[in-house]
Amino acid sequence: MAPTLAIVGATGAVGTVMIDIINNRESVPWGEIRLIASARSAGKKITVRGAESTVVELSPEAFDGVDIALFDVPDEVSAQWAPIAAERGAIAVDNSGAFRMDPEVPLVVPEVNPEKVHERPKGIVSNPNCTTLSMMAALGALHREFGLRELVVSSYQAASGAGQEGIDRLHAEIEAVAGKQVGVRGGDVAEALAAAGLPEETPFKAPLALNVVPWAGSRKDDGWTSEELKVRNESRKILGIPDLKVSATCVRVPVVTTHSLAVHATFDREVSVARAREVFDAQPSIVLRDDHDNGVFPTPAEVVGADPTYVGRVRQALDFPNTLDFFVCGDNLRKGAALNTYEIAETLVS
Ligand code: 2RA
């Protein structure tokens, strides 16, 4: 019998993208596709592969008969409900931070470590944070070829990483500064936002319109943010290099969707741009946009809504023979969240 898939958080931003991915797949291996959400959204009707489906309320019984349950809900909801789904016989594929670093829960990127889906003593598989995910297809491919040793990364993260609240805030800020002489001497951005009546409280800690903000996530020890530690810890776990040296600076930029990263990756062996290009070309989920002569490189705006990871600006670091520098863009709501979670489910049934 065809397996039953559930989507928990089906009406949220990522859940909606999951449904879009399912609706646009040529074929899917699922029999029933069950949509689950909080009481507030229960009863809503959503079309899935041509059939109208009614959202059911999250409850233990909602998992009866489910083979795989995709979760995109806040950490505390996943922490409570993914084990319940597993107890009821489903494999929970979770896109929250609740289980990512649990040694008994694999953290999976299907292009990099698909075999790990089978090592799941808790019945839970985790999906990485979108910032880490945006560079993983590229790094995994390079690691197989050259052996990754050190990673220095700067992120350029989209407002949608902070959810709908982040998207709404950026749109409101852009509206508040549009057409005004701000961002110049005497035209303070924060004052323009206050004059437009925007609350001082913001998901970004500082104005994001006409600005960049070197802060993403929550405060951690010694000046680091949660987002920077996720890049370090999750990269080590996914790539299977527990002592990988990693240093990350995570920055929020006034982009709505698609995270970008500037990556400085050092390998065990000497690297060449030509070989790196071949490696990227051979990876179906990577699009290489790298034509120095014609000014071709990826930008987040062109990647919105795309499934692949876009890579460009590939250079051999001038003073480091084993090091490549490159720029990578990935839609944080697709590969960074919904798509990778769905691909884990596909890997589980393949
Ligand atoms: C962010 N990576 O961009 C986070 C979302 N999971 O804020």
UniProtKB/TrEMBL annotation:
Amino acids binding phosphate: 100
Reaction catalysed by this enzyme: L-aspartate 4-semialdehyde + phosphate + NADP(+) = 4-phospho-L-aspartate + NADPH + H(+)
Binding site for substrate: 157, 252
Matches recorded under Pfam families: Semialdhyde_dh, Semialdhyde_dhC
SUPFAM superfamilies with a match to the protein in the record: Glyceraldehyde-3-phosphate dehydrogenase-like, C-terminal domain, NAD(P)-binding Rossmann-fold domains
Keyword annotations of the record: Amino-acid biosynthesis, Diaminopimelate biosynthesis, Lysine biosynthesis, Methionine biosynthesis, NADP, Oxidoreductase, Threonine biosynthesis
The protein's Enzyme Commission number: 1.2.1.11
Subunit annotation: Homodimer.
HAMAP family reported in the protein's UniProt record: ASADH
Entry protein name: Aspartate-semialdehyde dehydrogenase
